[in-house]
Structures are given as structure tokens and as C-alpha cells.
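Long-time lurker. I teach an intro course on protein structure, and each term I like to show students one example going from raw sequence to a predicted 3D structure in C-alpha cell notation. This year I'd like something fresh instead of my usual example. Would anyone be willing to generate the C-alpha cells for the chain below so I can use it in lecture? Attribution to the forum is fine with me.
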Amino acid sequence: MQQSELQQMADKLDRLLSRLQKLERDNSALREIQDELQRERAQLMQQNDLARNKIEAMIGRLRALEQR
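-- Reply from a regular --
Happy to contribute to a lecture. Here you go:
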């Protein structure tokens, strides 16, 4: 194998390693975003449940007043 071929392979390997590192960073960042979105979703679902419970309680009180 000639020196130029070895150099080309080494350059290609360097590019592949750089790309791998970038993809690993991107993947890590996306996982962090996903975790944050899952936490936010859980919080919103909890708030939705609280609101639903309050509305159901208000409807119950209104029906009780209506029956008087």
C-alpha cells in the first residue's frame, strides 16, 4: 500500500471519528430534550387531572343546588 493510500484512509477515518463524535453529542442532546418533554408532559397531565377534578366537583355542586 502506498503512502498516499494510507494517508487517504487515515483522513477518512478521522472524518468518520469526527462524525461519530458529533452524532454522539447530538444523540445526547436529543435524549435530554426527550427527558425534559416527558417531564413536562407528566406535569401537564397532572394539571389536567386537577382541573378535571375541580370541574367535576363544581358540576356536582351545581347539580346539588339545582335539586334544592
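Some talking points for your students: The chain has a mean pLDDT of 96. Helices lie at 3-67.
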